[in-house]
Amino acid sequence: MGRLLIRLIGLILLFTGLYFFGQNIIFVSGYYIPFSNRLPATVAVLVIMAGALTLVFFRREASNFGWILLGIGIVLVFFSGGVIFRSTSLWNLFVAFASLTVGYKLFNEGKINF
Length: 114
Description:
By secondary structure, the chain is mainly alpha-helical. It folds into two domains: 1-24 and 86-114; 27-85. The protein is built from four helices and two strands; from the N terminus they run αβααβα. Strands 1-2 form a two-stranded antiparallel sheet. It is flat, with a radius of gyration of 18 Å. The two termini are 24 Å apart.
């Protein structure tokens, strides 16, 4: 029972850290104008979806290809201008990072080594 509780606390801390990081990231999308310099966000979404589907359904056959597609999709999201980072306080950044790292350690190992 104790290990399950520790892993649950780690999972809660992990989601708390993601929440604090997610407060300061804005994803935007717009319409596509043909022959413009801006890359459409649709391509990035389709590449990320293809990578995720490849990792889920073809894990043994094409796992490297799935990871490559995910990486390309994430790069395309940033190139399309669809991600805006708001300014954040140092305290908010510290809480988010500490929560993510402690939650990850608790969830995977069940203990924190100082």
